[in-house]
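Reading a protein record of the kind used here takes little practice once its layout is understood. Each number in the token line that follows is a code from a learned vocabulary of backbone shapes. One such record is shown here in full, so that the layout can be seen directly:
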Amino acid sequence: MRSPARFVISFAVTFAAAALGALASRDAANFYGALSLPTWAPPSSVFGPVWTLLYLMMAIALWRAWGAAAVSPSYGFNR
């Protein structure tokens, strides 16, 4: 069963990791702007929405995997 508590914990853990990553990369804009980028490199304005979406999908995956592992020990987490 996928409980609301697991849902909240999954999102809290995932976005806490995202916050730590954001703190660690405070100077990334200056560094990225100084790079010699290829023509196919995405604009820097794309990174925020893309990383937010990735972390959102990771939180959902954690929540679903945690719920599946609680229901079925044969899921592969309890070997």
Q: What stands out?
A: The helical segments are 4-24, 28-34, 47-71. The chain has a mean pLDDT of 84.
